[in-house]
Amino acid sequence: MDGDHAVLDGEKTWISNGGIADFYVVFARSGEAPGARGISAFVVEAGTPGFEIAERIQVIAPHPLARLRFTNCRVPLDQRIGAPGEGFKVAMRTLDVFRTSVAAAALGFGRRALDEALHRATTRPMFGQRLADFQLTQAKLAQMATTLDAASLLTYRAAWQRDLGRPVTKEAAMAKMSATEGAQQVIDAAVQLWGGLGVVSEQPVERLYREIRALRIYEGATEVQQLIIARELLKEFGT
Fold it and tell me: pLDDT for 140-166, tens place per residue?
C-alpha cells in the first residue's frame, strides 16, 4: 500500500477474456493476515499504467485467455471490492455463481450434440434401415438424453437456491461436475454416432468435442468439485 493507492506487482495467468476486457478483477496479497485472510480484490481498468497483456494463450478451442503482468501498477483504494483482506471471500462467492453458469453452458453443448446425434441417426441409411433402428443406437440415445436431463435438474436446483439466497456451494459443485462430465460423455457419443464425419474439422460435433474439454477444468476441475462436495457433506454430518 502507498497512501490511498495499492501497488500491484506480479503476474496472473490463465485469465479469461484477457486482452479484450475493459475491466479486470485482481486478487492480490495485501497482508492484513496470514493465508487467505490477507488477500484483497481490486478492479483494474485496461490501460492503467503498469498493467499489460504479457501473453495471449492459445488453446484447443477458441477462447480469449492471457497472462497479465503488473509492474508498479497503482490502483486507487476506492477500487477495492469489499473490505481489506476479504478478497478470498469475494472469490469464493463468485465461484458459486460461475460454476452454475459453466454447468449451464455445458448443457447447451450437450443438447446440441444430442440434436446432431438424432439427426444423424434418423437420416443415415445402414444395411437397409436407418442407424436409429438399431437397438444399440437407441440405447446410446437414451443414455445421452437421461444424462443431460439429470444434470439439468442439478443445475436448475443450484440456480434456484442461489436466487433464494440460500447456501449453494455444494449444489453448485454438483451441478458443475455432473453437467461438464455428462456433456463430455454425450458429445463423445455423438462423435461416435457420426462415425468418420464426426472427426472432420469444423463439423458441429467435432467443434463441440474441442469446446467441452476445457469446461471440465476451469472454475475448478472435476477433482476439485469432488473435494468440495465431500467437504460440505462432512460438514453437514457434523464431522
Answer: 999 999 999 999 999 999 999 999 999
Q: If we measure between CA atoms, which residue out of 10, 11, 86, 72 comes closest to residue 42?
A: 86
Strand segments (E) across the chain: 5-16, 23-29, 39-45, 51-57, 65-76, 80-81, 125-126, 129-130
pTM of this prediction exceeds 0.85: yes
Q: Quick one: DSSP state of residue 124?
A: -
Q: Is the dihedral of CA 104, 106, 109, 113 positive or negative?
A: negative
Residue type, position 160, single letter: W
Q: Which of 120, 129, 12 is nearest to 73 (CA)?
A: 12
Q: To 10 degrees, the CA torsion angle through 87, 93, 99, 104?
A: -130
Residue in the block written with cell 472435476? 222
3-class secondary-structure state, position 96: helix
| Given the residues 202, 219, 223, 236, the one annotated as active site | 219
Cβ atoms < 10 Å from Cβ of 144: 25
Q: Shortest CA distance to 47 belongs to which of 33, 77, 68?
A: 68
Nearest-angstrom CA–CA distance, 22 and 123: 46
Active site annotation includes 219:
yes
